[in-house]
Amino acid sequence: MILQEQLTKSVKEGKSFEEEITRLKKVQAEAVIQEKEFEEMAVAFKRTERELSQRNSQTKLNLKKEQRSFQNKLNEVEDLVASYENKSANLSRELQTKQRILDPHDQHDDLYADNEVLGQNKICVVKRVCGNLGFINYSIQNNSEIMKQESQAKMGLLEETSHTVKAKMLNGDGVPPENNQDQNRAKQSQLLLGTVTVALQLIPTFEAEDSIKTFLGYVEDVALLEHLGDMQKAKITRIKPQGVARRMVEWNEDLHDPQCTWQKLKTALLNRFEKKLPLVEPIKQRVLSAKPVECEEAVNAAIREEQIEARIKKQTLQQAITNKDNDDKSIEMKQELPRFKKNYRSNVTNDAQQQRGEVKCYRCRR
């Protein structure tokens, strides 16, 4: 009915019947092409949604395992605290019974004083142990909160990426995949999310007692392997510290700012946590105040450290050569990309013309 109405309308306007039929055939062919493109976009959308759901399920399983392990540690610490509290209560009861039995005005004054001092010393020791256990419990709770924050940040990144991919693929407006910039951005964000999660698994956590140079070296090496930028390195460096280092990053407004550069954050961490003593100083102190056997152990340890340092230098040199080769390959691929796109578009247009067939003029029959 719609085609008949359009044909009658075109005849009334003075257009020829053959021209209107050719125009309608062209419109129908374009509609078929757009329908195929929308089907391809729907398949890609389902694939990405499936991958995101798998990653979400894996992340949830890992988080449950970590929470279970932290809960077990907390239960153990609580049991230890309860046992030490029971011991302190028993000691206080024993001290009270001894005070009732012994009379301070009797001839056993010295014995009473000794027992009283001994009981007070035991109570002080138990209180000190309970305080240490409370501090350990507080540190474990702090670490569990930090792990929860990291898990929430990972889940937020996954949800944000899934929402952006869905919105960009639904707002394509019939644009082909090779010219759809939103779809390309979604793919880039998905790849970046995968590299960031891999980097978080490879890089260990950092505490104030650890070596800051080793931690920053891990971050830079993983960033080179995963092709991360300065902003991603800064985000990872803010997530991984624990304890005093994490409080320093969170309480300092300049370092906690998302616009803080990688170089500024690196310099601040080095100035705060870099060990000023050289590597030879602790070995020297051990040698000067040690027995001959311990001296030999210290010398062997120094030799092992020297061998490890030489091996690390060799590995970093090999890594630099590999990174240079990868950079050369990426530059070559960037140079070849425009030519590849041009050939691909020409092939697509030729295939479309072959599917449509030769266009003939119905007036002159040519």
Describe it.
Keywords: Coiled coil. Residues 60-101 form a coiled coil. With 366 residues, the protein is mainly α. The chain has three domains: 17-173 and 181-201; 203-276, no CATH class; 281-310, no CATH class. The protein has eleven helices and no strands. It has helices spanning 2-13, 17-101, 109-170, 181-202, 212-226, 230-239, 244-251, 253-256, 262-273, 280-288, 292-356. α2 (17-101) runs antiparallel to α3 and α3 packs antiparallel against α4 (181-202). The radius of gyration is 36 Å and the shape is elongated. The protein starts with a helix and ends in a 10-residue tail after the last helix.
Biggest beta sheet summary: none
Computed over alpha carbons, the radius of gyration is: 36 Å
* Helix content bin: over 70%
* Share of residues in strands: under 5%
What gap, in angstroms, lies between the N and C termini?
Answer: 31 Å
Structural class: mainly alpha
- So what's the overall shape? elongated
Order of helices and strands: HHHHHHHHHHH
- Count all strands and give the number: 0
How many structural domains does the protein architecture include?
A: 3
Keywords: Coiled coil
Coiled coil: 60-101
How would you concisely characterize the structure shown here?
Residues 60-101 form a coiled coil. The chain is mostly helical.
Annotation keywords:
single chain; mainly alpha
Question: How would the blueprint of this fold be written?
Answer:
Elements: H1 2-13, H2 17-101, H3 109-170, H4 181-202, H5 212-226, H6 230-239, H7 244-251, H8 253-256, H9 262-273, H10 280-288, H11 292-356
Helix pairs in contact: 1-2, 2-3, 3-4, 4-5, 5-6, 6-9, 10-11
